[in-house]
Specification:
412 residues, alpha+beta, six-stranded mixed sheet, three-stranded mixed sheet, 13 helices, 38% helix, elongated, ATP binding, Kinase-like_dom_sf, Ser/Thr_kinase_AS, protein kinase activity, Prot_kinase_dom
Amino acid sequence: MTDASEAWAAARTHFRTLVNAELSPGIREDINRAAKTRNSSEKSLRSPTDREPFLRYGVASKIVTKEALHNLVAEEVVTWSEEQEESYLSMILGSPGLRCILLTVLCIGELEMLIQFEEYFLKQRQSKSDHDLPFDMDLAKKVFHENGPRFFKAQFIFTAVTLTAGTYRVGYQASRLLPYLEQTELGKGAHGIVHKVKIERGHFIFQQPRSRNMDPVFLARKDFRPNFDSFESFKAESRILKNFVNSSNCPSSIMTSICSIEYTSPENEFPFSSIFFPEARSNIDKYIKNHENAPKTDLHCLQNIKRMLDVCRGLVWLAENLVYEPIRDEFQNATYYHCDLKPDNILVCDDGGGDPDSIIFKISDFGEARYIQPKIHINKEVKARPSTNIIKAGAKAVFWLRRSKIQSSKPP
């Protein structure tokens, strides 16, 4: 037994060292503490972030290999026959596999936990696998008995969230680690804060073609405060983006979304909610205040006019394009008005051509959008007439051109 214990200690040191070398410096956000200020007048949405590392997707397969398990576990710690070893390694290393579950045990557990792992997953051939992580406390105790709480706490390093394009209102418990390597605040709104976030490689799944990001990817993340009004705004915006704005015929002048999540905790009545968007350069307000962006030629002025006309066409599309959506417990056609058009909500984005001077303006932020039933020009649920959006857009275009003319006439 002493030899087995020594071999187990050596194996644990080996796997711990490999895991520590591969950990990503993730960001941990204390949402429980932040939730206590949700009804206060404090400006901050979330508490200061702490670093909490996680093992990125795919690394476990590099660490838990057939050779490592054979040399460090099968030959030194346990007494598996050749037939057992072949069968057990197939279950551990196959798909969906047990790599992350075993790696959790190898890093934090006692030898007793390895025996419990063998009994539950390998001998009894239970249906649970890495795809079922993270385990709840009841299952962790069922498998590892008194060691269950240790496993429950340690498993989250290996189960960081993966964001999937095209999915909306996906729920996660507050104990799950988020795949953010860094984040920078971009601005504040009525219901929350917008951050630029860097997503670790392997933790974002593109929609077309369906694949994981091979390199870190930057997205804009719009966070909603954990209160009733903000959560209602999040639900409304998620619904509009999913069912309406993200449709195949949406014009290029409207900012489409990527996905949304809800981050919940038993201590909080409302979740922290986030919607993810492609990264933008800035918004119109910041853009026109930068003297370097002032058009230098008539061609540049015409390009700006075209961009603002595209914004107007986007507003017309919102007002005239019908969507099939549940309203008042029944399905009927409906269309939407933005109701919160302002310079902060018109974003400046790359148009995808690769030219740094090639940009497009996009309408964003549908948290205040309201539906209008067809053929009804004034709806009591909307505080503005249907024409208001277009009038606002026209006013912004005039302001843009006036400012452009003034700035371009300034001496260098």
